[in-house]
Amino acid sequence: MDGLFDLSGKVAVVTGGSRGIGAMIAKGFVDSGVRTYITARREDELNATAAALNESGAGACIAVPANLATVEGVEAFAGEIQAREERLPILVNNAGASWGANLGEFPEEGWDKIMDLNVKSLFFLTQALLPQLRAAGSVEDPARVINIGSINGLSYSPMKNYSYTASKAAVHHLTRHLATDLASDHINVNAIAPGFFPSKMTAHLMEHEEELVKHIPRGRTGTPEDAAGTAIYLCSRASAFVTGNVLVLDGGQVAAA
């Protein structure tokens, strides 16, 4: 049982790693001795996050700015990783966005932008990095892909975020599909479906946090430790036999809905 949750010496990529759940997971990795590449569009914010994580972590955080909203951007970023790493034990597909508008006015742009980033880029980045993932996996310790979904992809969302909910449901099903096809390559693919965590995307909801937590059986929103701990489990030997699952990280909200 020694080292069951040990990630030291591994390499990880976390997309959308400059803030929110991506930054929470990246910190957990760096603190666990993982060399962690983070990417996002805003270079100044990305570099600031990397600098902060490098101050106290046992691993290292490397900022690689990229725009994953296009296939060209995905290919450019994948090329950067491929040039630096022959093996990639961990890929966290976290980059995502949302769009809100009333049903009758929901624009095509709000559909295409969200689907492209939340689903299309996730698929093509995983595809591009398959050689590195395959090289890192073994029977005893497979490579890991974690896709960040959402409880909005599992149950009704009262918000007007139609393309977001559809995209996250797609992420969950794509996770199962990829997990089945990549199991023989010693790559585990799982999804995390977070509930309410403080972030820029949920800032407008956090203004009503007291009302929000009434619908969460655990009586609180998510913490950085919740996000990091779940990702560490899914990337450690403790979860070597876990693949094709959507792990709901919401304090019981979906179960109680």
**What portion of residues is helical?**
40-55%
Number of domains: 1
Structural class: alpha/beta
Report the uncertain regions.
Answer: none
Largest sheet, spatial ordering of strands: 3-2-1-4-5-6-7
Taken as a percent bin, the fraction of beta residues is 5-15%
Structural notes for this entry:
The protein has 257 residues and is an alpha/beta fold. It has a single domain, classed as NAD(P)-binding Rossmann-like Domain (Rossmann fold). Helices cover 44% and strands 14% of the residues. The chain has 10 helices and 7 strands. It has a 7-stranded parallel sheet with strand order 3-2-1-4-5-6-7, sandwiched between helices. Strand 2, helix 2 and strand 3 form a beta-alpha-beta unit. Helix 3 runs parallel beside helix 4 and helix 4 packs parallel to helix 6. The longest helix is centred in the middle third of the chain and has 21 residues. The radius of gyration is 17 Å and the shape is globular.
Give the topology, please.
Layout: E1 11-15, H1 20-31, E2 35-39, H2 43-56, E3 60-63, H3 71-84, E4 90-93, H4 108-128, H5 130-136, E5 143-148, H6 162-182, E6 187-194, H7 203-206, H8 209-212, H9 224-235, E7 246-249, H10 253-256
Parallel strand pairs: 1-2, 1-4, 2-3, 4-5, 5-6, 6-7
Helix pairs in contact: 1-2, 1-9, 3-4, 4-6
